[in-house]
Design goal:
- By secondary structure, the protein is mainly α.
- The protein has one domain (7-101).
- 74% of the residues lie in helices and 6% in strands.
- It contains two helices and two strands; from the N terminus they run ββαα.
- The chain has a two-stranded antiparallel sheet with strand order 1-2.
- Helix 1 packs antiparallel against helix 2 (43-101).
Length: 102
């Protein structure tokens, strides 16, 4: 199966990856593994297989949590910007009201 995610090594030495395509690939591989006929597996092979499935599921959940955390932070920044604009508008309205009353 061809991977849809991209890895990029930056000049700072860090490797960057697009999380959503990586999660999609993990989910497809996970689904494919679940379809494998395990009837011929030994007990040891089945234990190893189940650990790999558990590992893939854990990685998927971890990446999902990272993505969700990032979206929450973005939403908080948007809300803070909106609140700042609303405060400026309210301050302006207060000034106009004070000058109108006087």
């Amino acid at each position: 199966m061809k991977n849809t995610y991209k890895l990029e090594r930056r000049t700072d030495g860090h490797v960057w990856v697009n999380i959503k395509p990586l999660m999609d690939d993990i989910q497809k591989n996970y689904d494919n593994l679940l379809e494998i006929d395990k009837s011929a597996f030994t007990k040891e092979d089945l234990d190893i297989f189940e650990l790999k499935i558990l590992g893939m599921h854990s990685i998927y959940q971890f990446l999902g949590a990272l993505d969700f955390e990032h979206r929450l932070k973005e939403e908080a920044l948007k809300q803070a910007a909106i609140d700042g604009i609303n405060n400026q508008i309210n301050d302006s309205i207060d000034l106009v009201t004070i000058h109108t009353i006087q």
